Amino acid sequence: MVRTAERLAQLPPYLFVQIRQKEREAKARGIDVISLGVGDPDQPTPDHVIDALCAAAHDPAMHVYPPDEERGMAEFRQAVAGWYQGRFGVRADPEREVLALIGSKEGNHHLALAYLNPGDIALIPDPAYPAYVASAIFAGAQVVRVPMSAERGWLPDYAAIPSDLARRAKILWLNYPNNPTTATANTAFWQETVAWATATETIVVNDCPYSEITFSEQPTSLLSGGTLAAPVVEFNSLSKPYNMTGWRIGMAVGNADIIAALRKVKENTDSGVFGAVQRAGVAALSGPQENIARLLAIYRRRRDLVVDTWHALGLPLDAPRATFYVWAPVPAGRDSLSFAGELLERAGVVVTPGVGYGTQGDGYVRMSLTMRDERLLEAMQRLRALGPL
Ligand SMILES: Cc1ncc(COP(=O)(O)O)c(C=O)c1O
Fold first, then answer.
1. For residue 202, which phi and psi values (nearest 5 degrees)?
2. pLDDT tens digits for 67-122?
């Protein structure tokens, strides 16, 4: 058998595999399992976006390689620039500072390939969305985890990053609003971040697909913390606000050199997003936005149900301010993997153990709010029946 490349062996053990295996076993035993493990919207894509896709799919000009290939069509890049200006007051040049992506996950991966040489240092928060570590490892980089804590609002303490490490690091990955911790960042934090990026000559990327899933505050952007002359880039996505995870469309906005480097990787890797999907993306970004308020009302209702349930179990929890997750503390003295296993065994409910995002996440489990109302209610009733934990 031909051996796979070392980089596959270097990926950290995928802890979610263990819980999935237990889920399969429980199903095989006839248990009606409700999984709150996956964050994939249950609500439909807005009709006007689907209509735009259908119309564009009938246009033969869309059947060839996408116009402007890997960088995205001009009309899509202009729509992104207009959206960034409207949402965040950020001015980005659609020619030099905007790029279409096949989802923000693609941007993270290609950023690593564009900047990280074997042995280079990538700073990745602990806990964090696992794709950042995988992308850095695929590029051969050395991953240094930056510990986060609830006490600091799950934000990095720049003063605690040793200056020689900061100078040697090439990329710092951030993600606010955050998956899994649900933390948000304010403009003062972004200003501090841009100043740190400039002083240490480290690229700061904010992976930002949850910017619109924010309950009580105005969404913020890393790019509002300074000018795009700084080494900063943000990845956003249509996946979450428009219920378009399967469509695979997102955008990079930021420093022109970083956008050019990403483009170079993409030009040699993919041929961009299907033109009809980009047209639909323009309809999503530039058309009516009522769908988002409706979506937020649904997630808020579900969030409150989960938070109330956690309180009924005798566990502390503040209502998340953003994202469609709840990051809930496990009972004192328990670890996240065994606690998730217990909820599956005793209630048939799958939650994600926080340790899967890094050791700092071990005191928590993550629950996704993208489950239909009646199933989420059923899951919460089963948890309540466990009584105080
Ligand atoms: C933090 C984070 N980044 C990126 C993604 C992937 O987003 P996209 O569909 O835009 O690739 C997700 C999806 O769950 C996510 O949670």
1. -115, 135
2. 888 999 999 999 999 999 999 999 999 999 999 999 999 999 999 999 999 999 99
Nearest Cα to Cα of residue 207 among 242, 172, 231 = 172
**What domain range includes position 182?**
63-286
Q: At what angle do helices 275-286 and 47-57 cross, to 10 degrees?
A: 150
Tell me, in angstroms, the distance from the centre of ligand 1 to residue 106's CA: 9
In the predicted model, residues of the chain with pLDDT beneath 70 are none
pLDDT at 12: 86
263/295 same-domain check: no
Residue 130 Cα to ligand 1 middle (Å) = 10
Q: For atom 5 of ligand 1, which residue has the closest CA?
A: 105
Q: Total domain count for the chain? A: 2
Q: Give the Å distance between the CA of 248 and the centre of ligand 1.
A: 10
pLDDT at 387: 85
Which of 286, 302, 320 finishes a domain? 286
Q: What is the pLDDT of residue 210?
A: 98
CB contact set of 312 (below 8 Å; sequence gap of 6+) = 384, 388
Last residue of a domain, one of 251, 286, 321: 286
Cα(195) to ligand 1 centroid in Å equals 26
Query: Of 184, 235, 239, 242, which is best to mutate to test ligand 1, by the most ligand atoms within 8 angstroms of its C-beta?
Result: 239
- Residue 249 CA: nearest ligand 1 atom is 10
Report the pLDDT value the prediction gives residue 216, as an integer from 0 to 100. 84
> Is 205 a domain residue?
yes
Name the pTM for this structure: 0.96
Residue to probe by mutation, ligand 1, list 207, 244, 325, 352, most atoms within 8 Å of CB? 207
**pLDDT at res. 64:** 95
Q: What is the CATH number of the domain that holds 237?
A: 3.40.640.10
- Angle in degrees, 0-180, between the axes of helices 290-312 and 373-384, rounded to the nearest 10: 10
What is the Cα–Cα distance from 155 to 176, expressed in whole angstroms?
9
Q: For residue 321, what is the DSSP state?
A: S
Both 88 and 172 in a single domain? Answer: yes
Ligand 1 pocket, residues with Cβ under 6 angstroms: 39, 103-105, 129, 175, 179, 207, 209, 237, 239, 245, 250
75 in any annotated domain = yes
In whole angstroms, what is the distance from residue 193 CA to residue 123 CA? 14
- For residue 175, the ligand 1 atom closest to its alpha carbon is 1
Predicted pLDDT at 14: 73
pLDDT at residue 217, rounded to an integer? 83
